[in-house]
Amino acid sequence: MALSISDLTPEGRRYFEQLQKLSRLEVQVGFQEGQTYEDGTSLADVAAYNELGTSDSPARPFMRQSFENHEPELKAACEQVNKTLAEGGTTEKALKDLGVFCKGLVQQEIVDGGFVANKPSTIKKKKSEQPLIDTGHMRQSVDFVIKERGD
Question: Radius of gyration over alpha carbons of the chain, in Å?
């Protein structure tokens, strides 16, 4: 005898519906479209130059390191998504919590990433030795969105 979703308890149906919803959504962490510096420079462009490097600046892969250096924490955060749903929480809450966690990882990696030091000329210009941080605008602008997969 085959079972269907209608054979589940109300809690089971709700959980299954939330899992189906979860399969259609994703969390995108980083710099969102339209974010700029005061002069109009795209934050996503500046982040990409820092992440990948340029002919004048070494790569400082803060995005990649955020996820590569924290696999156990990320696994636990993803397991928490399932736990939230199993305890009656919504997909939106579970993904929002995951987004907040990942945003924090990226922001912390910008500060603590162990990147190649700034050149003396950069330090003189910025008045700071900290790679990736001048005004703090890039770090503060890391954000996340929850979207339908494929959007």
Answer: 20
Strand 143-148 to strand 25-30: parallel, antiparallel, or no bridges (unpaired)?
A: antiparallel
Asked if residues 125 and 90 have their Cβ atoms less than 8 Å apart, the reply is: no
5 vs 17 pLDDT, higher one: 17
Q: What are the structural domain ranges in the chain?
A: 11-148
- Cα(87)–Cα(72) distance, integer angstroms: 22
Separation between Cα atoms, residue 147 and residue 128, nearest integer Å: 37
Contact indicator for 131, 117 with CB cutoff of 8 Å: yes
Distance CA 107, CA 86 (A): 29
The model's pLDDT over 85-127, given as tens digits with 9 standing for 90+, comes to 999 999 999 999 999 999 999 999 999 999 999 988 888 888 7
